[in-house]
Write a structure and sequence with these properties.
- This protein is mostly beta strands.
- It folds into two domains: 19-60; 72-248, Trefoil (Acidic Fibroblast Growth Factor, subunit A) (Trefoil).
- It has one helix at residues 4-15, and strands spanning 20-21, 26-28, 37-38, 42-48, 51-56, 70-75, 81-86, 109-112, 121-125, 131-136, 143-147, 150-154, 165-170, 180-186, 194-198, 201-205, 217-219, 225-228, 241-243, 245-248.
- Strands 9, 10, 11, 12, 13, 14, 17, 18 and 19 form a nine-stranded antiparallel β-sheet that branches. Strands 2-5-4 form a three-stranded antiparallel β-sheet, with no helix packed on it.
- The chain is globular, with a radius of gyration of 20 Å.
- The chain starts with a helix and ends in a 7-residue tail after the last strand.
- Keywords: Signal.
- GO terms for molecular function: cellulose binding.
């Protein structure tokens, strides 16, 4: 027979066991006190100092004596689907050496055109790696295309075949005044919403959310890019700037 104290202890320990988080749930960040364990196929990806997220396909690789790799579905500029090998999909894993500072056929630069981020260019942080989507200097601009509702970033070197890509992924959890969604880069395709070019502007839409402006974005602390769910130039969260971002196809990015 268990004593009363033993029963209480067992119940307490059971009640404090960590839950396994679902995909896209928060798993860390400054002042965060919730659960941190992601599902088997997901990894806890750092979006910014205050928010980390369970992203499918970002599970840390199992211990091995050989360099781990993952099969990455890639799409060429002509739309053909290929498969290739990339680095592990954990945050900051380098996916490729990058296409250089001359625009490759079938791809675009993407940049903002409003102050305070005039001619700041879309890229990944770290560069050519899984992690945060940011607007940064033209000297480190990424190269992009929208293929089949996916925003893809070319990360393989010039002429390298098959092409290697990272995917722009959107987290469904609302952040910053309940008006924004985080954007990051992953080796697996986006599953929440659709990217498109409307004219030269980059848009994002999803069933169930009616956005006042599908081309509205925020650039916040650390130059991180978010989708703006609110009104453009109205109710802007503190520390953020309203932006629209547009493709640009000169041979070289410029300031």
């Amino acid at each position: 027979m268990h004593s009363f104290s033993t029963t209480v202890l067992v119940a307490f320990l059971a009640g404090t066991a960590s839950a396994v988080l679902k995909d896209w749930q928060q798993c860390g960040g400054m002042n965060y006190q919730g659960d941190t364990q992601c599902g088997e196929s997901a990894g806890c990806v750092v979006i910014n100092d205050y928010y980390s997220q369970c992203q499918p396909g970002a599970a840390p690789p199992a211990a091995s004596t050989t360099k781990p790799s993952t099969t990455l579905k890639t799409v060429t500029s002509s739309g053909a689907v290929l498969t290739g090998s990339s680095a592990p999909t954990t945050t900051g894993s380098v996916a490729g050496k990058g296409p250089g500072n001359e625009l490759q056929t079938g791809y675009y630069w993407i940049r903002a055109v409003e102050a305070p981020n005039f001619h700041k260019y879309l890229q990944s942080k770290p560069l050519y790696a899984t992690g945060t989507a940011v607007l940064g200097d033209y000297t480190t601009a990424g190269q992009f295309q929208v293929v089949g509702d996916q925003l893809v970033q070319l990360v393989s070197g010039p002429g390298e075949k098959p092409e290697k890509l990272l995917y722009g992924v959107v987290g469904p959890e609302r952040l910053i005044n309940n008006l924004s969604l985080a954007v990051s880069w992953s080796a697996t395709p986006n599953t929440y919403g659709k990217f498109a070019f409307q004219g030269d502007g980059l848009t994002w839409t999803v069933a169930g959310i009616s956005r006042p402006n599908a081309a509205a974005w925020y650039v916040c602390s650390g130059q991180q890019l978010y989708i703006n769910l609110g009104n453009y130039l109205y109710g802007t969260p503190s520390g953020c700037a309203d932006e629209t971002i547009h493709y640009y196809n000169d041979k070289k990015a410029n300031n």
